[in-house]
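Researcher: We're reviewing a set of sequences before deciding which ones to prioritize for further study. For each one, I'd like a predicted 3D structure that I can look through quickly. This is Glyoxalase-like domain-containing protein. If possible, include the structure in token form so it fits the rest of the review sheet.
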Amino acid sequence: MPWSRKAKSCMTCHLVALCVDANEPVVVGRFWAGVLGWELADDPQDGVVLLPADDSGFRIRFLPTDLPKVGQNHAHFDLTSASLVDQERTVAKALQLGGRHIDVGQLPEEEHVVLADPEGNEFCVIEPGNNFLADCGFIGALAGDGSRQVGYFWSAALGWPLVWDQDEETAIRAPHGGPKFTWGGPPLMPKVGKSRLHFDIAPPEGGDQAAEVERLLALGARRADIGQGDVDWVVMVDPDGREFCVLTPR
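Model: Here's the predicted structure for Glyoxalase-like domain-containing protein, in token form for your review sheet.
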């Protein structure tokens, strides 16, 4: 049946990784390792992976692709600042590591700084005193373009409670803390090709991949073919058409 805000499940999947397609995974991975202070390691799929050094609870994988980045990503990190000096320090470090300033339509009076990594993936360094991110760590949020429905979907899929639901905007957060995942509501950006960012999720230990896929289908997801071939993970899209992968339990 279609998902509702009151829907409950005895089993939810967990977020294994945020995956980022990259033309040069090592270059982008080194940049983010330097910005975040996370450990960089090799990835089984010929990319690299960042291992969290905080309460984020998920890895960041940079996976090889030959496709160029087209348009603005549908999600980006909001990095927090304890003070103006701290904000300036983060911006300076990012620029030193190969980042750059970009214009995504931000207003002159807005106090956050918009940057991009070496392959143009956008992120923001938020000004101090931001109340919404006050209790978050350095990665304050993964801020996404998305509908209210997709916020509800991911709340049910991951078992993370809604921490914001107002004016078509939604946000969820893991029960243990970590970054908030937000969706800004309409109007939505047009989707151009495969999303450059996607989630890897998996059933809990002892869970069943097929049963989890069926649960996600009931919540509003769909199977997808992106040319993955014969693999042991299942590619799906959420209600907004954004890809994610359901892995086998480890």
